[in-house]
Write a structure and sequence with these properties.
Helices cover 35% and strands 26% of the residues. The chain is α/β, with parallel strands linked by helices. The chain has three domains: 232 residues, P-loop containing nucleotide triphosphate hydrolases (Rossmann fold, 3-Layer(aba) Sandwich); 176 residues, 3-Layer(aba) Sandwich (Rossmann fold); 73 residues, no CATH class. The protein has a six-stranded mixed sheet with strand order 6-9-10-3-11-12, with helices on both faces. A six-stranded mixed sheet has the order 18-21-22-15-23-24, with helices on both faces. Strands 2-1-4-5 form a four-stranded antiparallel sheet, with helices on one face.
């Protein structure tokens, strides 16, 4: 099925989200739509899926103009979409989630057996490894995404839109998704891949269209270098590395002593952690998602109490203090899940930018909020952090994921800090925003703040860190220098102690040289 978009334009008030965009997706092609956060990628796909009506332009399928009044029309035409934020019901089973809205019936009665068999067939055909009877809430994020893909394919989607599909995936889940996209392509399904991830685009796309601020600014082949794509996407040269001088670490600012957290089954998810983070240093936690990093961050913030051990800030035991008192002690926190823990989606952007400061001057006087001061503060942070907004009075839920992240980071960096904890700080950000966030993290370090950064992106860990702590199954495998080879870090992330990891990496390197 050939898909064509001609002159698609979509306007929201003064904002032109899509400005006469042309796009052609050939049958059986993976076509990447590359652009910064807020460039208009998701808006364009929401027009294609019938969620928005275009103000100008038209959609053609196999040369025939289409009019989609809603997603049902798009689905009937053979278009499926997997949204960045999954549209699944947590308490439903996989089968129920796939059938929802298009329930198969037999004699007027819901035919769950047919729906279940469809899930099994598609799962086996594409190697999804999905249990049709599993509850959505029990599945990891990568598996939930595969359920969304099954849902689209079960409705005979010939063009599959994947909107920022790797924004919440681990590197391993990302590799699995890339393999799935290749299998879908071989089966004849066309894919529109909306992303800002250069590595993934170059790994899987057949053709690349780049949009910037609502306009198509170029076409590219996946053979283009990451620097070429980044420059085209952002409109200026981008430093894909991290520029920083040597750190000058000071006194211990954040300390964990014999920290232990048990899960509901009594199994340690944090097991006797002893770790220090010093003023003026970036200590990065490396590890595959789910090895205790989330719990470490929660204990640091105070949203979770340890079963044993202590947390100290500037030598003060804060283990029993609530979140409010820890923030007052100089703790800043950028959470892993911004939508759940970093913002209130129904609040405005301006309100979200003072969430942890609303009782302080100049934002309040007595029991009254100073709306002018709040507005001035939000406008300044918007400009400083390049948060792409129509108005700071819009709900923060109207922003793209990357712009939400920048708003949260702006809030946390807008007050004096002693310790800053960042979990997945660049998840969902484009290369230009990543460059900016990394520069702000380094600048905060250079002001003397102690930074604890948790990231599943090993390249990011190696680029940002002054020291690296590796976690595996809730334990510290070791603490190493930032120049430790990726091969050694990878082995340590699998639970192998540092000395053994270095020996194995050296042996592998020697064997490779001999093979040459």
């Amino acid at each position: 099925m050939k898909l064509e978009l001609e002159g698609i334009t979509k306007v929201f008030g003064p904002l032109v989200a899509n400005d006469h965009i042309d796009l052609v997706v050939e049958p059986g092609q993976i076509h990447a739509l590359l652009g910064e956060n807020g460039a208009g990628k998701s808006t364009l796909m929401n027009v294609l899926y019938g969620l928005y009506q275009p103000d100008d332009g038209r959609i053609l399928i196999d040369g025939v103009p289409q009019k989609f009044h809603g997603p049902g029309d798009a689905v009937a035409a053979g278009i499926g979409m997997v949204h960045q934020h999954f549209m699944l019901v947590p308490v439903f089973t996989v089968t129920e989630s796939v059938a929802l809205g298009y329930e198969p019936t037999k004699g007027g009665i819901l035919d769950t057996a047919a729906a279940r068999q469809k899930v099994i067939e598609l799962s086996e055909r594409f190697g999804f490894d999905i249990d049709p009877d599993a509850l959505i809430e029990d599945l990891p994020v990568g598996a939930q995404q595969r359920v969304e893909i099954i849902k689209a394919l079960s409705r005979d989607a010939q063009v599959l839109i994947l909107d920022e599909p790797t924004a919440v995936l681990t590197p391993q889940e990302t590799d699995e998704l890339i393999a799935i996209m290749r299998e879908l392509k071989e089966a004849g399904t066309s894919i529109v891949l909306i992303t800002h991830k250069l590595r993934e685009v170059r790994a899987v796309a057949d053709h690349i269209t780049v949009i910037r601020r609502g306009k198509v600014v170029g076409e590219a082949k996946p053979t283009a270098s990451e620097n070429e794509l980044a420059t085209l996407m952002v409109g200026r040269p981008v430093d894909l590395g991290v520029s920083k001088t040597e750190s000058h670490a000071g006194d211990i600012a954040l300390s964990y002593r014999e920290l232990t957290v048990l899960n509901e089954s009594g199994i340690p998810v944090l097991d006797n952690i002893n770790l220090d983070v010093r003023q003026g240093e970036i200590l990065c936690i490396a590890g595959v998602q789910g090895n205790g990093q989330t719990e470490l961050c929660e204990v640091t913030l105070g949203s979770r109490q340890p079963d044993a051990g202590t947390v100290e800030i500037d030598g003060r035991d804060v283990t029993v203090l609530d979140i409010k008192r820890r923030l007052a002690a100089g703790l800043g926190y950028v959470p892993e899940d911004r939508s759940q823990d970093g913002m209130i989606s129904s609040f405005t952007i301006a309100e979200n930018m003072i969430l942890d400061q609303h009782k302080n001057q100049p934002f309040s006087h007595g029991i009254s909020l100073d709306l002018k001061a709040i507005d001035t503060h939000a406008q300044a942070l918007r400009d400083e952090f390049d948060v792409r907004v129509t108005s700071v009075h819009d709900p923060i839920s109207t922003l793209s994921g990357g712009n939400q992240q920048k708003a949260i980071l702006a809030r946390e960096l807008s007050r004096p800090l002693r310790v800053l904890v960042l979990s997945q700080p660049t998840r969902g950000l484009d290369v230009g925003s990543i460059e900016f966030v990394h520069s702000r993290i380094v600048a905060e370090r250079d002001k003397g703040t102690a930074l604890l950064v948790v990231s599943t992106e090993l390249d990011e860990v190696m680029a940002l860190a002054d020291r690296i702590a590796v976690m595996y199954r809730g334990r510290l495998v070791g603490i190493v220098n930032a120049d430790t080879p990726a091969e050694v870090l990878g082995l340590m992330m699998a639970g192998i102690p540092e000395n053994e990891a270095r020996a194995q990496a050296a042996h592998t390197s020697t064997a490779s040289e001999e093979d040459k």
